[in-house]
Amino acid sequence: MRKLLFMGLPGAGKGTQAELLEKFGFKQISTGDIIREAFKNHDKIIQPYEESINNGGFLPDEIIFQLIEKALSKFSEGTKGYILDGAVRTLPQAEYVKEHNLIDTVLFFELTEDTAYERLSSRMVCPNCKKIYSNKTTHCEKCNVDLIKRHDDSHEAIHNRFQIYKEKTEPVMPFLKENFEFIVLDANPSVEEIHKEVLKALEL
Ligand SMILES: [Zn+2]
Asked: How many angstroms separate the alpha carbon of residue 130 from the centre of ligand 1?
């Protein structure tokens, strides 16, 4: 099973590219989804933290990775691989995935901050199904409701995310390069072009 980690600035299109790999047998692991699911189900792993989280606290890294490992363990034998997106943002997290052998290849989606900003500030989300639209759509084609701007994509929130990325995530890159197969992809072109490069890089 191939174990991929997608890295890159918010807006690099990591989630979209991960989705496009689904038909090639790859499963996408979204840390946010896993945590939300665990809360909904009152998962034993997070029970001791529920109260503190409800008061605005954060889950410790170790607990997040326990949830991820639990999700990974449910994959069937036939799964070609999985993609971790947004799971490694700090050095301790990178060290954890190395120690637990959770990834073997890093795909780094490289793009300029200007392009990332442009993409994030123009995208809209369906308030109903949560699908994100990055083109000029104003309506969710599935739910037939008006799209809204995500709070996460306000001018201030975007710059905040870039800042956190620079401070915490960028310094992780040397460690990732040293310890895993590290593939750099140009994330400036269109979704289709990047997808082609991803397939080439993974020899699919
Ligand atoms: Zn919708």
From this structure: 6
